[in-house]
């Protein structure tokens, strides 16, 4: 009797705040390494159960170093060291839950994501880099680790993102419901699931969610805008919001992906002419409006019954109220209001992607990433003597 696959997903996102470690079980699916065919999604598709979830915040020095690396301020010697340092921190985050897991999937920290190089230095190669050395996690836990999920899609012509929609479809698609799963992390991204069909899935990064708001909060010496209070306290500079909404990334049709290198205060003309409270209010209004604009342009025309929001931005009532107003009458719910676990979502998704990669099954939706074909996203690092 083979037991149901138990998978540990490790996720550290663009907010660079810490690591989500999630242990899931896939009842009714083939055992890890047991071969077989990928289960087709039907109305009765087996879904993942979240067994455990732990969040480990980054220490301040590691967070500062990782943020500097995303901002181009780190030397290659520092990135080399950070790769192994983060590997150790990921292994520690995994430690408590790994004994029970057949497999670990680790996303790693995106330090740069360059799907559309701007030609600086005359370089045109598309590339992406997630660090957090998998060998360290293998050595410390004794488990096989799947990592480095984005490169295979990018070299097949895709954006290397978003990858979570593949798992969203397995977990949240429902016959007869046209639902968007929305993530408000550092960057904002959505997965549109028009019932069970794979063909109609649309997924892309809309632009900023919390990336700009967090930077504004740092001007006050904070880490983020707790409860959206700063965003609610200042005045919104509507003219600036209007100008920023004309950004070419926001107008470009999907598939598309973006990152912090594009969404930072330095790139918003006029922002530093405002006082700190008004910066917070204005970037909050802009970020919420950019999300609503993406729905109006690219999703609402296909028919939309509900938006379900995950990610830290769901805890910012100022952001959520503006989004709800801009999308009314379409209901905007949080994951928790739907009875789902929002904080486990991305780590659970990468656990599923890692499982597919380990089994040798394709695990991307090429029409959402823009790739020429689907790929097996994720590379395998194995412990000695695992026999897998
Ligand atoms: N109580 C809160 N009030 C306001 N904002 C919050 C609150 N809690 C979290 N956030 C916001 O959510 C952010 C973290 O979100 P999340 O953990 O979803 O991001 P991430 O997973 O790192 O990003 P991504 O999904 O883009 O990779 C914080 O940086 C902060 O801006
Ligand atoms: C390059 C990168 O790390 N992209 C992240 C980021 O965070 C949100 C958005 O931008 C999304 O495209 C992606 O992550 C999610 C988890 C994804 O691939 O689906």
From TrEMBL:
Residues that hold ATP according to the record: 13-20
InterPro entries named among the record's database cross-references: Anhydro_N_Ac-Mur_kinase, ATPase_NBD
Catalysis performed (reactions): 1,6-anhydro-N-acetyl-beta-muramate + ATP + H2O = N-acetyl-D-muramate 6-phosphate + ADP + H(+)
Biological processes annotated in GO: 1,6-anhydro-N-acetyl-beta-muramic acid catabolic process; amino sugar metabolic process; peptidoglycan turnover
E.C. designation(s): 2.7.1.170
Record-linked CDD domains: ASKHA_NBD_ANMK
Top EC class for this record: transferase
Keywords linked to the UniProt accession: ATP-binding, Carbohydrate metabolism, Kinase, Nucleotide-binding, Transferase
A GO term for molecular function: kinase activity
Pathways involved: Amino-sugar metabolism; 1,6-anhydro-N-acetylmuramate degradation; Cell wall biogenesis; peptidoglycan recycling
Protein purpose: Catalyzes the specific phosphorylation of 1,6-anhydro-N-acetylmuramic acid (anhMurNAc) with the simultaneous cleavage of the 1,6-anhydro ring, generating MurNAc-6-P. Is required for the utilization of anhMurNAc either imported from the medium or derived from its own cell wall murein, and thus plays a role in cell wall recycling.
Family label: Belongs to the anhydro-N-acetylmuramic acid kinase family.
Name of the protein in question: Anhydro-N-acetylmuramic acid kinase
Organism of origin: Deinococcus humi
Lineage of the species this protein comes from: Bacteria, Thermotogati, Deinococcota, Deinococci, Deinococcales
């Amino acid at each position: 009797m083979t037991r149901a696959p138990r998978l540990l997903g490790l996720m550290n996102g663009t907010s660079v705040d810490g690591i989500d470690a999630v242990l899931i079980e896939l009842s009714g699916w083939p055992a890890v390494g047991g071969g077989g065919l990928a289960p087709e999604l039907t109305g009765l598709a087996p879904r993942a159960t979240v067994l455990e979830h732990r969040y480990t915040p980054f220490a301040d020095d590691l967070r500062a170093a990782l943020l500097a690396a995303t901002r181009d301020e780190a030397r290659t010697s520092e990135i080399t060291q950070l790769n192994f340092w983060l590997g150790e921190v990921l292994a520690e985050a995994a430690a408590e839950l790994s004994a029970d897991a057949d497999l670990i999937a680790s996303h790693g920290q995106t330090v740069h994501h360059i799907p559309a190089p701007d030609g600086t230095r005359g370089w045109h190669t598309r590339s992406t880099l997630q660090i957090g050395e998998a060998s360290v996690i293998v050595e410390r836990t004794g488990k096989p680790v799947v990592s480095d999920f984005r490169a295979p899609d990018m070299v097949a012509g895709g954006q290397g993102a978003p990858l979570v929609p593949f798992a969203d479809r397995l977990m949240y698609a429902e016959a007869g419901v046209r639902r968007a799963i929305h993530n408000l992390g550092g960057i904002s991204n959505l997965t549109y699931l028009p019932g069970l069909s794979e063909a109609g899935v649309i997924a892309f990064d809309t632009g900023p969610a919390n990336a700009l708001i967090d930077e504004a909060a740092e001007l006050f010496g904070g880490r983020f805008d707790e409860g959206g209070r700063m965003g609610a306290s200042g005045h919104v500079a509507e003219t600036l919001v209007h100008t920023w909404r004309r950004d070419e990334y926001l107008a470009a049709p999907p598939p598309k992906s973006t990152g912090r290198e594009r969404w930072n205060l330095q790139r918003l003309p006029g922002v530093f002419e405002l006082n700190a409270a008004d910066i917070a209010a204005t970037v909050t209004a802009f970020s919420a409006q950019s999300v609503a604009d993406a729905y109006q342009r690219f999703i609402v025309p296909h028919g939309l019954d509900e938006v379900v929001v995950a990610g830290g931005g769901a805890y910012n009532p100022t952001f959520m109220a503006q989004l709800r107003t801009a999308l009314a009458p379409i209901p905007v719910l949080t994951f928790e209001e739907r009875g789902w676990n929002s904080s486990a979502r991305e780590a659970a998704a990468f656990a599923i992607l890692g499982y597919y990669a380990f089994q040798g099954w394709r695990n991307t939706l090429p029409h959402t990433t823009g790739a020429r074909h689907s790929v097996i996203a994720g590379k395998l690092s194995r412990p000695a003597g695992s026999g897998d």
